[in-house]
Amino acid sequence: MPLEHVDVLIVGAGLSGIGAAAHLRADCPGKSYAIFEARGAIGGTWDLFRYPGVRSDSDMFTLGYSFEPWTEAKAIADGKSIREYVQRTARERGIDRHIRFHHRVVRAEWSSAEALWTVEAERSDTGERVRMTCGFLFVNSGYYRYDQGYTPEFPGQSEFTGRIVHPQHWPEDLDYTGKRVVVIGSGATAVTLLPAMSGDAEHVTMLQRSPSYVLSLPGTDPLADRLRGLLPPKVAYPVVRWKNVLSQLLFFQLSRRVPGAVRKLLRKGVSAQLPRGFEVDTHFSPSYDPWDQRLCFVPDGDLFKAVRSGKAGIVTDTIDTFTPDGIRLSSGRELEADVVVTATGLNLLPFGGLELVVDGEPVEIGKTLAYKGMMLSGVPNYAFTIGYTNASWTLKADLVAGYVCRLLNHLDSRGLTTCTPVPPPSVEATDPLIDLKSGYVLRSIDKLPKQGPAAPWRLFQNYPRDVLLMRRGSLEDDAMRFSRAAKTAKESVA
C-alpha cells in the first residue's frame, strides 16, 4: 500500500506554521498539504507557556500576520489573546482540518531520483511510527526544546523545603498567594513574572546574575488608537505595522552605530521610573551593548510600578547555595523563599531535533550554511522559519512563507521538481545563524546553521531590505540549483 503523499508537509502548528499554511492556501491553492504538530493543540509557544503574565515581547502589529489584522487595543498582548488569534486564523481558513496532532517528526530522508521526502513521525498518543511522503518539507518548529527548559544545577537545591518551578512547565496547582517568591533570571520571562506575581504574593524578588536592558513601552499604540475609528482595519493595520517596523529598525541601527548614546538613553528611561536612590547602575546596566542580546520590553512600566510599590525587588548577585528556607548569595545575604521560579532560559533544539538525510547521507546541520536565512546548503526542497532577533518573529515568518510559495510556483511553471542551495567553494562560514550572545545561543552554537560573509548566505536583520529580496528579488541566482527528477513525486507514490 503506497504511503500517503502531500505536495507540502508543514512541521509545527504554532504562529509560523499556521501562517505558512495560510500563505500556501492563498498563493498555491492547487497544492495539497498537511501539518504535523508534536503537541495536542494549535499555538506552539503561546499554547505551551502558561506562566503568570505571559505576553508578547513584540508589539502585535508586527507579531501579527500581515494578512490578518490585529484589531484589539492591546499592543503588547497576553498569551491567551495571542493563542486565540492563531487558533481563529486556522479555523476561519480551514487550516485546522489539515493538522495531525501528536505527530512529532523525527526523521526525513530525501531521494533525488524521485524528488521526494519520506518523513517519519512518532505519535505521542499511541507510540506508533507513521510515514508520509512530500515534495517539499517546510519546518516551522522554532529553535528550542518544548519538553525541557534550561535549569542549571544549583548547590544545595535538594535541601530547599519550598517549591521550585520552571516557567516553561507552569504547574496548575501552584498557589503563591501570600508567599515569598524568588524569580531567578533577568530576561523577558523574569521581568514579566515579577509584576504579574507581585499582586498576590507577599513579596517577589528577581535575582539576577547580571542585568538586562529594559525599555518601557505603551500598552496600547497611540497611532492605532487614533486610526481605529477612522479607517478600516485592512487599511490602518499596514500603516501601524510599517510605522513600528521602521521605529524598531531605527532603534536597532542606532544601537549598533552609537551604542554608548543608546545605553545612556535606556538608563535615563529606567532611572525616571524608579524610586530616588535606587541602584540603577547595579541592577539595570548590562556589561554588553544594546541588542547584543534581546531587549526586555515592559508595557506601561509595570515592572517599575511593582518595584515602587514595595512588593517587588531586584537583587544582583550570584547563588552560593540553596538553604532549607531560601537562597544564600555569594555576598552572604540570604533570600527567604517559599517558591523559587527558575526563569533561567531555554534549551536549543534546531528544527525540533529532526534528523535529515539526503540521498543516504546524514546532514550535519551545524556544518551547513543558511541560504537567505531559510534554507540549508545541500538540502533540496527544504525550508525553515527562524524569526528576527531584533524585531518580531512573524515579520520574517511571513516573508519566508511567501518566498516558499514563490519557489513552488516557479518550479511548476518551468516543469521542475527540485531546488537546492549550493554555496560556491569560496564561501566560508563566519557566524552562527542566530547572532546573539544570549546563553541559550552560546550553549548550542555548534548545532546551528552558519552564515557566510555576504548575501544570500548572510542575514542582515533588516526587514525592508528582506521585503525587496524575498518578495521582489529573483528566484534564480548563482547559489540556487534547479533540476527535474527522472521520476516525479506523484509518479513515485502512484
UniProtKB/TrEMBL annotation:
Ranges annotated as spanning the membrane: none
GO molecular function (one): N,N-dimethylaniline monooxygenase activity
Cofactor needs: FAD
Protein name: Cation diffusion facilitator CzcD-associated flavoprotein CzcO
PANTHER family named in the record: MONOOXYGENASE, PUTATIVE (AFU_ORTHOLOGUE AFUA_8G02570)-RELATED
Coiled coil: none
Keyword Hydrolase: no
Organism: Amycolatopsis endophytica
Keyword Mitochondrion recorded: no
